[in-house]
Design brief:
The structure is a single chain. The protein has about 250 residues and is an alpha/beta fold. The chain has 2 domains: about 110 residues, Methionine synthase domain (Methyltransferase, Methionine Synthase (B12-binding Domains), Chain A, domain 1, Orthogonal Bundle); about 130 residues, Rossmann fold (3-Layer(aba) Sandwich), CATH 3.40.50. The protein is about 55% helix and about 10% strand. The chain has 12 helices and 5 strands. The protein has a 5-stranded parallel beta sheet with strand order 2-1-3-4-5, sandwiched between helices. Helix 2 packs antiparallel against helix 3. The chain is globular, with a radius of gyration of 19 Å.
């Protein structure tokens, strides 16, 4: 076994320095034992928690090269690993610095998979994706943007902390058919509502479909209706199906 493969093997079983064993009264690990890519997700997470993003990157690139779909890597590795990072932070087993490192590393590794993301033909039109002003948690909407790209959308991803006027301007300039807005923190829901209102007031955006997502919309499934969106979805795959359905319905009308 060569050195890098040995490190990958060790990542499957080794506990990262400073990470205590889980106690019986804590919530269980979010990475389910029976999930198809659970061993890969655990190896990936362990590598990040040990501060070795190079091994984490190698795991993902090797998986993609060996035929595992990028969609599956996003949904079954990146997503549960990030949820588990958040859980470990909430129970004080990770520091803020460690949480930020894991998130930044995942974003970097996602970008390394972009040759698999951006290769397809774009037939569905343009969509803008952004976090509201003040929202810094962007990895979820970035996953949504990448899924849409893989499904034939031309995505215009603005990232975190985008002022409302800039979002509206981008929707108009790109002649976007849809807008995906993300907010992770409950206090930012009002900003989502204000952004939606700004889009609705803009004549050029009269047919734009608006999708929202993030933690507040998972905890309250009807919140999207209250703030005037066209729909919400719990993950990137569901968001892609929703965007397709909403825009296809608008054409049929």
């Amino acid at each position: 076994m060569n050195s890098s493969n040995q490190q990958v093997s060790q990542a499957l079983t080794a506990r990262p320095p400073g990470l205590a064993a889980q106690t019986s009264d804590e919530a269980p690990c979010i990475i389910a034992e029976g999930a198809p890519l659970a061993p890969l997700a655990r190896a990936y997470l362990q590598s990040l928690l040990r501060g070795d993003r190079h091994i984490a990157s190698k795991l993902m690139l090797n998986a993609a090269e060996n035929g595992i779909a990028v969609r599956d890597l996003y949904l079954q590795v990146f997503q549960p690993a990030q949820y588990e990072v958040g859980r470990l932070w909430q129970v004080n087993q990770l520091s803020v610095a460690q949480e930020h490192y894991c998130t930044a590393a995942t974003q970097l590794i996602m970008s390394q998979l972009y040759p698999y993301v951006f290769g397809g033909e774009k037939t569905r039109g343009a969509i803008v994706a952004a976090c509201v002003n003040g929202e810094l948690h962007e990895i979820g909407v970035r996953m949504v943007s990448d899924f849409l790209e893989m499904d034939g959308w031309h995505t215009y991803y603005l990232g975190a902390n985008v002022p409302a006027p800039a979002v509206v301007q981008s929707v108009v300039q790109r002649q976007a058919r849809a807008l995906a807005i993300s907010a992770t923190l409950t206090p930012h829901v009002r900003k989502v509502e204000s952004l939606i209102a700004a889009v609705r007031r803009t004549p050029e955006c009269s047919r734009v479909k608006i999708l929202v997502g993030g933690f507040p919309f998972k905890t309250d499934p009807d919140l999207w209706k209250i703030i005037g969106a066209d729909g919400s979805a719990p993950d990137a795959q569901a968001a892609t199906l929703l965007a397709n359905r909403l825009t296809e319905e608008s054409i049929a009308v």
